[in-house]
Design a protein that fits this description.
about 90 residues, mainly alpha
Length: about 90
């Protein structure tokens, strides 16, 4: 059975979309501050757990010196340097 679109059906559909959009917009204005507060609290709690200071592993006043490894290792697999002159 083939149905054809009517102007009344189109207007009803548009009216429903506008009505739902208006209600959603109104409700979001009411509830948005509460939603944002809860999101901010969750983010703050997450930040606090991530940035909580770790207990020190060494005693107070104890000094440790970490040496940096020498990173100036020569790469002998490159080949030897050959000096050249431009010939004109």
């Amino acid at each position: 059975m083939l149905q054809t679109a009517s102007i009344i059906g189109l207007l009803k559909t548009l009216l429903i979309f506008v009505l739902v959009y208006s209600i959603f917009k109104y409700l979001m204005r009411l509830f948005a501050p509460y939603i944002m507060k809860s999101l901010a609290k969750k983010a703050e709690a997450h930040f606090r757990t991530q940035s909580a200071p770790k207990p020190p592993t060494q005693k107070e006043g104890e000094i440790t010196i970490d040496k940096m490894p020498n990173s100036k290792s020569s790469n002998n697999s490159v080949g030897e340097y050959v000096d050249y002159e431009d010939v004109e």
